[in-house]
UniProtKB/TrEMBL annotation:
Belongs to the DegT/DnrJ/EryC1 family. Pfam families: DegT_DnrJ_EryC1 (PF01041). It comes from the Bacteria. Keywords: Aminotransferase, Pyridoxal phosphate, Transferase. One of its GO terms (molecular function) is transaminase activity. This is Aminotransferase. SUPFAM superfamilies: PLP-dependent transferases. The active site is at 193 (proton acceptor). One of its GO terms (biological process) is polysaccharide biosynthetic process. The modification N6-(pyridoxal phosphate)lysine is found at residue 193. CDD domains: AHBA_syn. InterPro entries: DegT/StrS_aminotransferase, PyrdxlP-dep_Trfase, PyrdxlP-dep_Trfase_major, PyrdxlP-dep_Trfase_small.
Length: 379
């Protein structure tokens, strides 16, 4: 019999298995780029941009260096900068705020729904001022935000929407992909994302050809033609090697997202009804892509230690709300002023999920969580 000590751990996410599954075609694509002698702004990027735009049901994708740059350049491309305000979720990864700060604009945090991790549109309306230029909803954990209500508000107040889709490749809202049509959405291809590369990468998708053209200049020193600089751009290009790898993985994204959904369904039924444990809620008209499977409990740290002792890796997304991060000391609202974000930060725990997590591993997680819940219930 194998002792508990010898049982392999359940990893939070197995990136190496993702490489192994597609190793021959990935190695061939990398070799193709190496052999081509073209490493930036070449045919792989062009091919990926066309394929990713089509996947997102829109016309343009512009590959950049990271998700953070995708957000920042999308905001700059829309002319947002110093003196402007952008509404951001209080509960998100810090990059959503940092991208706004990097343009010189001010991030104005608004709380999520009480039981759902995305922006609450009722609270958004109260935060709009004459300086507000844009809303920046985040499709957190792969769950689409309440886009109809946000679009209605944006239209009524003449605001742009820049969607942070770093965790939502392939998710659908009312049957359409995040990024579809005339949306402006920023994606990250950080290795752990649903569509990830072998380093940093990102893209902005948009239905607006002029914005796409400005973004192509902004990412390449403000230049359309070598040594002609029409604006103060930056260097933020998605390189040929990453683009080639992303093209291969894009063809598998729906099937990989399907495996995530099957595991989420397993967790949702296996963990239903446990006292003191909040499960993720799927909002009506949304098809999430389960970037994360995040539960909530006031006894989060206990649950985390219990799972760790049983060989199960977990993460917290995110342990410190952005307004309490030292990065925003003196600028953001004080402790106690964004109670929903603070309660998410105190309670959230993400269980292992990913296209290479086996069903048996998920069942092991379920057993361990149930064991913890029974113990807590009897205490
Ligand atoms: C919600 C969110 N926004 C933005 C980013 C930034 O993406 P990147 O790490 O590619 O800069 C990330 C991921 O790290 C994210 O999770």
């Amino acid at each position: 019999m194998t002792s508990r000590a010898e049982t392999p751990r359940v990893p939070f996410l197995d990136l190496k298995a993702a490489y192994e599954e597609l190793r021959p075609e990935t190695d061939a694509a990398v070799a193709r780029v190496l052999d081509s002698g073209r490493y930036l702004l070449g045919p792989e990027l062009e091919g990926f941009e066309a394929e990713f735009a089509a996947y997102c049901e829109t016309d343009h994708a512009v590959g950049v260096n990271s998700g953070m740059d995708a957000l920042q350049l999308a905001l700059r491309g829309l002319g947002i900068g110093p003196g402007d305000e952008v509404i951001v979720p209080s509960h998100t990864y810090i990059a959503s705020w940092l991208a706004v700060s990097a343009t010189g604009a001010t991030p104005v945090p608004v709380e999520p729904h009480e039981d759902h991790p995305t922006l609450d549109p009722l609270l958004v309306e109260k935060a709009i001022t004459p300086r507000t230029r844009a809303l920046l909803p985040v499709h957190l954990y792969g769950h689409p935000a309440d886009m109809d209500a946000l679009r209605e508000l944006a239209d009524r107040h003449g605001l742009h929407i820049v969607e942070d889709a770093a965790q939502a490749h392939g998710a659908r809202y009312r049957g359409r992909r995040i990024g579809a049509g005339s949306s402006v959405a920023a994606f990250s291809f950080y290795p752990g994302k649903n569509l990830g590369c072998f380093g940093d990468g990102g893209a902005v998708v948009t239905g607006d050809p002029e914005l796409a053209e400005r973004l192509r200049m902004l990412r390449n020193y403000g230049s359309r033609q070598k040594y002609s600089h029409e604006m103060k751009g930056t260097n933020s290009r998605l390189d040929e090697m990453q683009a080639a790898v992303l093209r291969i993985r894009l063809a598998h994204l729906d099937s990989w997202n399907g495996r995530r959904s099957a595991l989420a369904a397993e967790y949702l039924s296996g963990l239903a009804g446990l006292p003191g444990l909040g499960l993720p809620v799927t909002a009506p008209d949304t098809d999430p892509v389960w970037h994360l499977f995040t539960v909530r409990t006031e006894r989060r740290d206990e649950l985390r230690s219990h799972l760790d002792a049983r060989g199960i890796d977990t993460l917290t997304h995110y342990p410190v709300p952005v307004h309490l991060s030292p990065a925003y000391a003196g600028e953001a609202p004080p402790e106690g002023s964004l109670p929903r974000a603070e309660s998410f930060a105190r309670q959230v725990l993400s269980l292992p999920i990913g296209p290479h997590l086996e069903r048996l591993q998920a069942l092991r997680v379920i057993d361990a969580v149930r064991e913890w819940a029974e113990r807590v219930d009897q205490a």
